[in-house]
Design goal:
There is one protein chain. The chain is an alpha+beta fold. It has three helices and 16 strands. A hairpin with a 2-residue loop joins strand 7 and strand 8. The chain is globular.
Length: 228
């Protein structure tokens, strides 16, 4: 009985620390968008409405507006894509689409970032990604507090890849989480999650388990009403 009390105390303490360790990241699935007052494809929408909690950057410069259900031609851009967008959302109602361009010797990057705290005890960052054109895992950079996170492709689905990164060295720390598309890369992102589990080994068992997890989550999100 004493051991049971100790185990319960430890579990409650860990949960408490995870909740009070600092400012939590928000809107990691991009479903908090408030776009119901806009048409199907407006030229631009306020970034504060489209991606609450996040800041959009073109070549490091914060943007006050981003596109909605649209893509740019030959320019770096950031857009929020719904289920009827040019690049339909890969999960739920909305996904983020980053377009980086290359002109002569200048690369115009596209990025989104948010400052928050990684929960105490968490070990991994997992998200859905879809890369286009010259895109590759090396052309999408994810950093925390300016430190590169090494991405690993965990599993593939029909319209996205599940990527993961080890964030255990930064657990409990506060900093900016930044996703950047470089070198003529188009990247669609969704369902960013922190986990207390380590990045799984790319074995058949691990791939099956995590694939089933995201498939179930994707099907649940599909049931959400579309505000448009």
């Amino acid at each position: 009985m004493k051991l049971l009390r100790i185990a319960c105390f430890v579990a409650v303490s860990i949960a408490f620390l995870r909740n009070v360790s600092g400012q939590r990241f928000v809107n990691l699935d991009f479903e908090a968008a408030n776009l119901s007052v806009y048409g199907a494809r407006p030229a631009a929408v306020p970034a504060t409405n489209a991606i609450p909690g996040w800041t959009a950057y073109i070549s490091g410069i914060p943007q006050t507006t981003i596109s909605f259900n649209d893509v740019a031609l030959n320019d770096a851009a950031i857009s929020i894509q719904g289920t009827t967008g040019f690049e339909p959302a890969v999960a739920g109602r909305y996904s983020i689409f980053l377009q980086a361009t290359y002109r002569e010797i200048v690369t115009n990057t596209a990025a989104i970032g948010q400052t928050g705290s990684i929960p105490v005890g968490d070990q991994s960052l997992i998200f859905l990604g879809n890369l286009f054109l010259a895109g590759s895992i090396g052309n999408v950079q994810v950093t925390f507090n300016g430190q590169d996170l090494s991405l690993v492709a965990i599993s593939n689905a029909l319209n996205y890849t599940i990527y993961g990164a080890d964030i255990s060295p930064y657990a409990g720390q506060t900093g900016q989480l930044l996703f950047t598309a470089n070198n003529n890369t188009y990247a669609e992102l969704d369902n960013i999650q922190f986990s207390s589990l380590p990045i799984p080994e790319p074995s058949e068992l691990a791939l099956t388990a995590i694939g089933a997890l995201f498939l179930g989550f994707h099907r649940w999100r599909k049931k959400l009403p579309n505000p448009r």
